[in-house]
């Protein structure tokens, strides 16, 4: 079993590149870190290219992955870790090739410029919990395999397809497509039918859904605010809308 004791090792340098969008694009790989995500990957029968562990974590590795294991020292793991406290395991996976369906049947969430990694990951996790059929990251949205998005998804990327695409090009592909907006023409979300073949569009944290997209929807929806808050966080709003359509 290979053991790496220096952070200057070439493999360590290559793995560090996966912390950048450019590095992930060039290799088509991404990283999961920590016991929970490792166990979720095992449960979901994901193929792990490399499993990097410290001596302390070695006994927890599934026997099926021992050939992929590379041991590292605590100091090297600290170099690789993207959290303040290393969790002892760091796995490298292929980014799945998800081609957009030719026809969209089911329930989808479309992200139009959602840039906060925590919001994006929470939306994917909620879509998974609500039984949606996919999440599409549109132009201007955060990289779905950014480390903070991956941590927020909590393994939901193993359960629900994640796509990337131009939202404007797919506006006519859904039976019902709902934007989110705070304007006089928007409808209370509870007024639209709870149908199966739908898309819900969630927009940028500061600017919302783009006007070009809003003009091409079936309806634009709003969530009534009863108290004095100015608005809802996009991930919270997304959760309310997704569960309405369950």
């Amino acid at each position: 079993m290979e053991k790496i004791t220096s952070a200057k090792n070439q493999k360590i340098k290559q793995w560090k590149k996966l912390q950048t969008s450019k590095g992930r694009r060039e290799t088509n790989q991404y990283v999961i870190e920590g016991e929970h995500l490792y166990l979720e990957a095992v449960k979901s029968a994901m193929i792990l290219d490399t499993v990097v562990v410290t001596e302390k974590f070695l006994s927890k590795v599934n026997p099926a992955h021992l050939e992929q294991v590379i041991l590292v020292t605590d100091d090297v793991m600290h170099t690789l870790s993207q959290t303040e406290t290393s969790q002892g395991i760091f796995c490298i996976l292929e980014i799945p090739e998800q081609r957009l369906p030719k026809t969209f049947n089911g329930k989808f969430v479309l992200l139009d410029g959602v840039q906060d990694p925590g919001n994006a990951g929470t939306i994917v996790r909620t879509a998974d919990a609500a039984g949606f059929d996919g999440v599409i990251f549109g132009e201007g949205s955060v990289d779905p395999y950014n480390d903070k998005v991956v941590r927020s998804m909590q393994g939901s990327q193993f359960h629900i397809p994640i796509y990337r695409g131009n939202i404007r090009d797919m506006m006519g592909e859904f039976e019902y497509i709902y934007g989110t907006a705070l304007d006089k023409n928007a409808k209370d979300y509870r007024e639209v039918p709870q149908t199966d073949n739908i898309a819900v569009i969630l927009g940028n944290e500061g600017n919302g859904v783009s006007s070009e997209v809003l003009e091409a929807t079936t309806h634009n929806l709003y969530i009534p605010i009863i108290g004095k808050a100015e608005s809802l966080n996009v991930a919270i709003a997304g959760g309310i809308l997704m569960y309405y359509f369950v």
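The chain has two domains: 3-94, 107-244. The domain at 3-94 is CATH 3.30.1330.30 (60s Ribosomal Protein L30; Chain: A;).
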